[in-house]
Amino acid sequence: MADRNLKSTFWSEDYITGITFVLHSISNESLRLKTTLKLISDFDEKVTAPAIRSLADIAKANEVRDSNESLWDKHQRQHIELLNTIAERLGIASHSKLEEACLAPLEALQFEYEEFYRESESILNSNYGHYSKCLSQAKKSQLDYFSRNDSLKQLYLVPMENNSDHDSDENEIEIERLVCTDSGLKFHYTLDKRLMFKSEDELEEFVNTIKDTTVTSRRLIPLPGVNNDYFSCDALFEAIKRVASRLDTSVFNKERIGQSLIDSKIISPYNDVLGAKPVFTSQGYYVWAYERNRKEAHSNETQPAKADGFSGFLRKISGVENSETKITTPVQLLEEQKSLKRLRDVYFDQCQALDYARLQLEVELQKCMAQYESMLNRGFQVVHHVSTQFRLLCSNSMSISTVIEPIDVKKEVEKVYEANHGTVGYYVPQPGVTFVEYDSRGILIAESMFHADLVGAPAAERGAAQVLDVLLKYLRELDSKLVLQAWGTPLDFVRVSNFRRECIAEFSNNRGDHKYSMLNALTRQNRPVADVVGLLRMWLLELPDAVIPMACYEPLCVQDTASALGKAPKEHLANLAALCDHFQWLTRECGTESLANLFFAPADIPLYHLFARNRLRQPLDAVIMSPVVYKILCHERSPKMLETLIGAAHAGKEALGPPVVIARDPLLTPVRSARHLQPNSTFVPRPLKTVSAEASPHRSPSRSRKRISGINLGVQSLASSPGPEENSSELASPEPTPSKMTSTTLNAPSHHTS
Questions:
Q1: Domain 180-301 classified CATH 2.60.40?
Q2: In this predicted structure, what is the pLDDT of residue 698?
Q3: CATH of region 10-176+328-437
Q4: Is 712 exposed, middle or buried (0-12, 13-18, 19+ CB in 10 A)?
Q5: CB-based contacts of 569, cutoff 8 Å, min separation 6
Q6: Rounded to the nearest 5°, which phi and psi values hold at 577?
Q7: Residue 39 half-sphere exposure, CB side, CA atoms within 13 Å?
Q8: How does pLDDT run across 126-139, given as a tens digit for each residue?
Q9: Which of 609, 479, 592, 632 is nearest to 537 (CA)?
């Protein structure tokens, strides 16, 4: 059976909850010590010390100085001797004795707890504040980077092909796919198959040409603020014919081209009605609107620049680029890509800084939990010793017999930890922001290497994630005994975090290639086996949903069969199969007993927790889940079982035949979970048997002469059960349809008693 180590069970999904819980636990222990100190101090100050002084005063005041041997003198001396004896007995629990045996140890421990609380609160809050600041900056840089990529992606009308081609030149662009934003037009801009424009300059030259050659008329009464020169449809197309002589001048084509010019805001109707959609007709009159729109756009560009000079200066010095910059030329696009690269570098640096801030917070929180566990064990021993001494002093002074019961310090410590479980538990990291890779066109090409879902992750040949596949193949080439030892070594947060940041740097340099990034990080220098296994363990811990997903966790707790894994997605099953092959190799090389000791040994992070986690934090599940995960990964029939489940998952249906059952070892099998008997557990109703049961036979009128209601409830007594002949006739007759059954039941006649 797996042992429990609850020392590191103050981890939470947001860190601050775990910090609050551990500080609250330290404060509670300090408060309990104060309560015990006050009780003993009050007993000393209000009971023993005043009693001893009062007895001494009474004895002194009633001292018999005469040498008479009268009866009164004899009784008086006896009374005084009794009072002195009581004072001597109370002196056994005097202030000096209580101070030495009880008060001094408790005061020292209570002072230590207060100092520990102040230091822990200061360090943890400081590190969490720094982590929160880095998290906020990383989220902001991520938002800027993602927004700029979205804007860049909109510059391409046609989706780029070969998005995964990382070696393509970032500066290579296609003019045809750019969007020009000054006039809201997209290029290529096409009026007709003989009127196509690749850039706004070509369009502007065309408009100026036909504008100079179009015959216009002037308003009789000029109006200020509007164009007073107008022209007809025929005059417009005569000018266009001079540019494109072979243009189709049918009425339909004229109105189509004219409507395009209106929609593009190159021309507008002479008598434009506000709120009405302008329509081009061959009989209408029009004015030029293109130049006016360009002037308005130019004024809109220059005016905010003056008003927004100070904010623009702030954006410049803060490194935040303006994501609304309009791009009309290839040179501007290249500048946009350079700006995007700067944002990417800021985003990468912020992610790395966040990872380091997270490391500092986790290391300090881990130290705090370790010191608290040590002080808690020592504190229980000190309190038990002080309580024993206090009871002995009081019983001896009062001549009272008392029974001192021994305590189990380990169980008492577990009670303190169990009070917090459900909200906090074993280690689960929360990086907050992860680095992902985009290409030069603003298209996402690779998710993060760490803290990414298995579903959709880059997979190797057999379906396992590329990161997992590379690490397992690398470990397969090493000494199996060293690998087994590394699995049982405590996780070194500092070395693993440094290794992880190196992998992310390789991921950035390799433009999002998981496989080669991991290979380069492994081969760049000679890595200790513990670091490689530690990185693999951290990768497993950072999965949002564990290799054995949450949907299978509860069924595995209460079922003694691996059929519960049938609920897992095929990606999870493929990665679980790769891990199963790894542990099968370790079992063959190192023996079954070594693997069993590995899974059932107490640890800060139990081995089962790497592969199976539940949203509800219950560290005591280690007793149940450790044997289950051990059997799934190390049993000789597990590879065949997983192969069957993967085949069924690919086929989109459950495997035929009975599920493969892995029997538990009776020596390792814990008591079956009784969580379904607990009052606070979740109730899962079973299907009602009446859903699939046949309808009760209809009551025959001849069987009962008592009046019943017009609705037959279908309740049949034992006395009215049909005979064999009736049963055979019912089985032979076709089964009635639901509609017929309903009408027969509801229309049953009423019978009156005679």
A1: no
A2: 40
A3: 1.20.1270.60
A4: middle
A5: 454, 455, 549, 649
A6: -65, -40
A7: 13
A8: 999 999 999 999 99
A9: 609
pLDDT of residue 679: 42
Token representation of residue 443: 């298209």
- The H-or-E segment that residue 565 falls in is none
Integer Cα distance of 188 and 7 in angstroms: 67
Between residues 324 and 227, which one has the greater pLDDT? Answer: 227
| Domain residue spans of the chain | 10-176+328-437, 180-301, 447-544, 545-685
What span, in angstroms and rounded, lies between the C-alpha atoms of 335 and 76? 111
Residues 509-548 as b or e (16 or more Cβ within 10 Å = b): ebbbbbeebbbbbbeeeebebbbbbbbbbbbbbbbebbbb
CA separation for the pair 382, 234 (Å, rounded): 106
**Is the pLDDT reported for residue 654 higher than 60?**
no
What per-residue confidence (pLDDT) applies to 561? 61
**CA distance linking residue 199 with residue 186, whole number of Å:** 9
Structure tokens at 720: 């009215």
Q: Could you read off the pLDDT of 279-338 as tens digits, one per residue?
A: 888 888 888 875 544 444 444 444 444 444 444 433 443 444 444 455 667 777 778 888
Q: Which of 158-162, 564-568, 609-613 is the most confident on average?
A: 609-613
Q: What is the DSSP letter of 221?
A: S
- HEC-encoded secondary structure of 640-689: HHHHHHHHHHHHCCCCCCCCCCCCCCCCCCCCCCCHHHCCCCCCCCCCCH
Alpha helices (H) along 44-103:
49-61, 71-91, 95-98
Report the distance separating Cα 437 and Cα 443, nearest Å: 9
Burial label, 224 (beta-carbon count in 10 A; 0-12, 13-18, 19+): exposed
Residues 6+ apart with CB under 8 A from 251: 282
pLDDT digits (tens, 9 = 90+) for 446-470: 899 999 889 888 888 888 999 999 9
Q: Which helix (H) or strand (E) holds 269?
A: strand 267-269
pLDDT at 241: 87
**pLDDT tens-place string over residues 366-378:** 999 999 999 999 9
